[in-house]
Write a structure and sequence with these properties.
By secondary structure, this protein is an alpha/beta fold. It is built from 9 helices and 15 strands. Keywords: Hydrolase, Signal.
Length: about 300
């Protein structure tokens, strides 16, 4: 069911490189480490995973922060191996959104790194608390051996930023129109990490945003992120091989506008799916498009 993880080290000075599947732990170019004293490693569970959710290890010289914990226990164990191979002390696990693919792997990570604090925004913690039982009841039987040993609910983050070796990593969006949909900003790398507002290389999940205002707010958030002029963008969800840069912001904004335009014209969900596939014939995640289309055309309720 699962494929081997993709390890994608991100070195800004040297550009993107990609290690082959199951390669030895990746290293970041010395120039990038010297310039910023931080670097990133991105874990992706591969194209056959149930959810194409990313996890990012932000590394300093001695310590590290993990952003997001994966969905299945087997992928969380691969993530544990990546963290251990880094040789860094994991101080913090930050959960960037309240859907289960972001946090179901926490039990595996907590067992491996009991010293690491596990935090999320108040909005994310509330979302997890309100939905965890239903999510586990729905997904648990489908996960088999990957089901979490227990649900771990993060502590509420005190403040609006993480700290790593003296560098402040702020959350972007807490003071905006959708404080439940934020990303992490790494200023020294000009990197956007995690969250649900940005997608790359696959159909954008639209079922959770069902009103014109929600789409307007979303576009406002993306505009704010574009104003940061990021060099690296690691979305919470992306298809393997997608460019991890500012093009993801433009893609997501364009997709939202296209979805709205085609929804207004389509007579039903089948017509909407056909129109969006005509616009984006190569995107992964068709099942996401199909469900989003049914919700948009009033053919099903979500959640």
């Amino acid at each position: 069911m699962r494929t081997a993880a993709l390890l994608l080290p991100l070195a800004l000075a040297a550009g993107f490189t990609s290690a082959p599947l199951l390669a030895a732990p990746a290293t970041t170019a010395p120039a990038a480490a010297t310039k910023s004293q931080l670097h990133l490693q991105t874990f992706h569970p591969g194209p056959q995973a149930m959810f194409s959710v990313s996890s990012v290890l932000i590394e300093g010289r001695h310590d590290a922060i993990l952003v997001d914990a994966q969905f299945g226990a087997s992928d969380a164990r691969k993530l544990v191996e990546l963290i251990r191979a880094s040789g860094k002390q994991l101080t913090t696990i930050y959960i960037s959104h309240g859907d289960p693919d972001y946090y179901f792997g926490l039990a595996t990570l907590q067992d491996a790194f009991p010293q690491a604090r596990i935090v999320a925004t108040a909005q994310t913690v509330a979302h997890i608390q309100q939905t965890q039982a239903g999510k586990l009841a729905y997904w648990g039987p489908k996960m088999g051996a990957d089901v979490p040993a227990r649900i771990v609910v993060p502590q509420v983050l005190d403040g609006d930023a993480l700290q790593l070796e003296g560098q402040r990593l702020p959350l972007i969006g807490l003071d905006g129109p959708t404080p439940d949909r934020t990303v992490l900003w790494v200023p020294s790398l000009r990197a956007i990490v995690g969250g649900i507002p940005v997608v790359a290389g696959e159909h954008v999940w639209m079922a959770d945003t069902q009103t014109p205002k929600s789409h307007s707010d979303w576009l406002q958030t993306l505009q704010r992120l574009q104003a940061l002029k990021p060099k690296v963008v690691v979305p919470g969800h992306y298809a393997p091989g997608a460019a991890l840069d500012a093009s993801a912001l433009r893609f997501t904004a364009d997709y939202i506008r296209a979805f709205d335009a085609e929804t207004a014209k389509a007579k039903d969900s089948a017509a909407l799916v056909k129109a969006m596939q005509a616009r984006y014939p190569k995107l992964a995640g068709v099942a996401s498009l199909e469900l989003s289309a049914k919700v948009a055309k009033g053919e099903m309720q979500w959640p």
